Structures are given as C-alpha cells and as structure tokens.
Amino acid sequence: MADTKTPTPDEARAFVAKAETDLATLSEYLNKASWVRATFITDDTMWLEAKANGEWTEKTTALAEQASRFDKVPLDPVTRRKLDILKRNLVLPAPSRPGAARELAELSTKLDSTYSTGAFPYQGKTLTLSDAEDILAASRDPAETRAVWEGWHSISPVMKPDYARLVALANEGSKSLGYTDTGALWRSGYDMPADDFAVETDRLWGQVVPFYKNLHCYVRGRLNARYGDAVQPRTGPIRADLLGNMWAQSWGNIYDLVAPKDEVSGYSLDKLLVDHGYDPTKMVKTGEAFYTSLGLPPLPDTFWKRSQIVRPEGRDVVCHASAWDLDDRDDIRIKMCTKVNGEDFYTVHHELGHNFYQRAYRDQPYLFKNGANDGFHEAIGDFIGLSALTPTYLNQIGLLDKVPGDEGDIPFLLKMALDKIAFLPFGLLVDRWRWEVFAGQATPDRYNDAWWTLRLKYQGLVPPGPRPADAFDPGAKYHIPGNTPYTRYFLAAIYQFQFQRAACKQAGWTGPLHRCSTYGQAEVGKRFAAMLAMGQSKPWPDELEAFTGERKTDASAVVEYFTPLNDWLTEQNKGQSCGW
C-alpha cells in the first residue's frame, strides 16, 4: 500500500509560497528592530532586537526542518532551489526546544553590543576602537602601538563564556537540520558539497600565497630597518601591532615605512579629498555617481533621509560600516561613521555595492533576494572600488589633475597590495578558526592558542607580547561576536579581480589591468546589471559566467593585476631569507 503521507509537488510549492510570504513580513520587522539597536544602543533596543531575532530564528529553524520533508519529492528546479536555500537560511540555527531560540538571540545581541560599546583606559583617557585605530595607523612608537593593541584586545575576554554557549546552541541547531556542525552548514552555501568547498578555498589560496610571502618578506625587512632586531627581527614572523591596523588585515597605513626608496613624490587621496572640500555626504554622492555612470538607477530619496552617514552625537552606535535592505524593495541604507579619508572613500564605494545589488534583485521572489553567494555580495562593491582607487578614476572625477606616468605604477600597486594582498590570509583564517571551534577541534580553553596558530600559519604574524591566560583575541574582531561568516571576504578578494579583468576586456581596455577604470562604461554596466538582477536564482557559476564568461573562481586575475609589483618585490628581496 502506498504511503499516503508522502508530500506532493503541489504541497511543496504551496509550502514554499507561504514560507516566502511569512519570511518577507518577519524580515522587515527584524531589520527595523536591528537598525534601531545598531544606531541607538540601549538596554531597550537590545531587548527589542533580541526578541525579533528570537522570533526570526524560531521561524526559520522550523521552516528549515519542515523543508526536509520534501527532500525526495520530484520537483522543478526553482522550487528545489528555494527549499535548499530555506534549509541553510540561518547563520546560527537554534535547537527547536522551548526557549533555545530566545537564548541564542540574546547571546548574539549581547556579544554584538559588548563589542560595539567596548572601550579601554589609556594615558588618562577612555579610548574606543575608532580612537585606537587612529593611533595604530599613525604611531611609529612600538611601545605605544603595543599598549593600544593590548588595550583593545582586553575588551574581549568577558565574551568568551557567552561565545562558547552560543557555539553549543548553534551546533545543536545545525545537527537537527542534518549538518555535522555549524561550520558544515556555512560551507554548504556554495552550490557544492561542504568538504569540496574547503578544498576549493585551499586551491585559491595556493594561487596567491607566493605573492603574499614576497610582500611579507619585503615589509618585514623595512620594519626591521626602522625598528631594529629587538622590536622586529629580520627573519621569522612580523609583530602584529606594527602593521597599522588592529588585526593586521590591511597594511596600507604603514605605507610611509615601506614606500620605494626612490619614489617620486606622489599624491595623497586623504589630502585630495580635504583639499577639494569633500564631506561625508559628498563622498557618498560620489560613490552613487559611479554606479549610475554604469546605467544603474540612482538611490531612492529615503536612502538620504534614513541612512547613518556620520556618527551621531550623544549615543552609542555600531560604527562598523554596513549596508541595509530593510524591506526587500526600496528602503535601502548605509550605516557608517564616515571620515573624510581615502579608506572611507573606498568603503563608501564598497558598501553602496550591496545597496545597488539589493535594488537590482528586488523583483526576484523572496528566497532569491540575495547574492549568487555571499562572496558575490562583497565582491560587487570591491570590484567598483578597484576602479575608485585608480588615478584614472580620480582624474575622471576631478580629484587628480593628471594621471601619473609609469613611474607611479609601483607605488600605486604597493599601496593596493598592502590592503588587498595583505588581507587574503586573514580573510581565509577567520572562518578556519570558527570551523575548528564548531567542529570541537578548538575547545574554549584552546580558543586563543588555536587563533594564533592560524595567524602564524597563514599571516606569518605573532602578538606583540605574551597573551594573558584568559585572552579571547578572536573576540576583538567584530565578525566573531557579530557572528558574520568571513570566507565571503576572501572569495570577494578573488572575484573582484576576476570581475575587473572581464569588465576591462569588455570595455576594450588594452593597457595594464591596474590602470583600468570602468567608470562611465555603459556597455559594461548592461552585463553587470544583468548579473545583479539574477540575485540568488541560479547557481553562482551560472551568474559568474553571465558577466565574465568563466565558470570557475580564478585567482590568476589577482596575479595578473599585481605582476609588475611582484617582479619588483622579487628584486628587492634578493639575498633575504623569506618565509617564517
């Protein structure tokens, strides 16, 4: 006798349709609660967001479990894809038992707010992360950089018990959905088996690691020349606080220490912006103009009325830059504490990439309103940002009177590499650490040791001194307490160059890849917009192919972009013992 309980294809489609309607309503409520908490942190707004998060987690976890009922039902590709997305829709799935979703939501909100309100005493003042970052960027006193680095990292030990509890709850929820742990759930979102994805990231890292080691070797030598063997030895790893960034994920702030010795005086983007009267709003307007130059529609009026472009006075906010889509339609915003400098000029172009992507796929069904994968969402703005930092673009928009000749290539590429190439190993290791944590390989008593083992392995870095027994240094990076998967940024660091190579070819550019600006290229914009409009409706190789003509992620575009610099670094490093 046939099993009458076996669901039908029509039941599956009806289930998906109702799920999309319910989630669309609930997500707008959650987004608005999250926005209020992020832009006005109080006990009350934290409570509101935790409540909304708990309801969202309960709903999405239940839907994920129910979606599994249709695993063996023969379905059309669209319904099957939507069911697969439903099953992995949560970053942190909660156990289905009563109270678990609320506990997970409260832990998540508490961790995020603990980080965002973090501060520490230094020389009679209380420093925020923003203050500490400014000191690390500018100071050339290793005693000061160490003190400030250690000061910020002192805010995170209090998070460790909550983080360990959150991991346990999320793993329990992931197992109920059929995953071995939460790391396996995260790795399943790339249209390939979870284990294959880990191998794929290893392959991509292998394409770029020789260049990273070349850059590491050169920078270490210049730091040694500046500080001496007692501070930065000539061989081995680099001291993490000497690289101008709290997590040593970008090294551009120490360009003055590593600039070519024979560099002809160049230009400072920071100075150009100030000299041309830029303010935060003008920076965002300039970023918008890049996207509209490609033929994309301008941002809605509500963007300008509702975004947080500068840090408000008199209240605690989350300053970490982010882009928001509150209603999956037109209410798109950015949240920044924008400063008038080159770093935030780039960040504006990056964050707006999320908003223009969100706008492009707004006509897709709810479950397809997302990037082809999370790396795509990050890569869109990074791809535009590659052009935004070129002297070609700065000249096009009137910031730079004249594009430097070939003599400016090495300084420009070195500045880019200090951010783009230096970032790659960090982009990879953050989730490698979490994969170990979720898998139980790194237990709470080993959280910090496991973190520094990976930072040494991939980045070739060590802390400025011994770490306290209770240290929880991963918690000093926003994306850990904020529970934001990080491999997306590593992928984006590859995709952006792949997009750039394809776009410049489409534009008929015949010069060096690093000099190409796609500003104003309407024909490129048509193919670009077509890819964006697909949202998450197709497997990412299909969407990659739609814009680039390629179906495989390929870091050779990174190597091509930086080839002149890599050759120059090889020459500079002659006689050095590279590696660590």
From TrEMBL:
A family per Pfam: Peptidase_M2
Keyword terms: Carboxypeptidase, Disulfide bond, Glycoprotein, Hydrolase, Protease, Signal
Coiled coil feature spans: none
EC number assigned by the record: 3.4.15.1
InterPro entries: Peptidase_M2
Molecular function via GO: carboxypeptidase activity; peptidyl-dipeptidase activity
Family annotation (CDD domains): M2_ACE (cd06461)
Enzyme class: hydrolase
Protein name per UniProt: Peptidyl-dipeptidase A
Native source species: Inquilinus ginsengisoli
